[in-house]
């Protein structure tokens, strides 16, 4: 859910479907208004989706448990390995 919310909040891309399975369509003015409200913690993203009769489209997401910053030199202090599978 966090990935869908953050995608919407940061880019305006809305990954949500209606109860009938169609992508949720929202006009630009409402989308921008709700983005600001979600970002400012004035409204919960999930509550807004409920009001619209929609749910986050989580069907195409998969878990990422580790990631390497391979483009950085291993000697670089910025080189990191992120591993969330050990939580």
Q: Could you explain how this protein is built, in words?
A:
The protein is α+β, with helices and mostly antiparallel strands. It has one domain. 33% of the residues lie in helices and 14% in strands. It has three helices and four strands. The strands form two sheets. It has a two-stranded antiparallel ribbon with strand order 1-2. It has a two-stranded antiparallel sheet with strand order 3-4.
Give the topology.
Layout: H1 2-11, E1 16-18, H2 28-39, H3 45-51, E2 54-56, E3 66-68, E4 81-83
Antiparallel strand pairs: 1-2, 3-4
Report a brief summary of the structure.
It is built from three helices and four strands. The chain is of the alpha+beta class and 87 residues long.
Computed over alpha carbons, the radius of gyration is 17 Å
Number of domains: 1
Spatial sequence of strands, sheet with the most strands = 1-2
Structural class: alpha+beta
Question: How many helices?
Answer: 3
N- and C-termini, Cα separation = 19 Å
Q: Extract low-pLDDT stretches.
A: none
Question: What can be said about the biggest beta sheet?
Answer: 2 strands, antiparallel
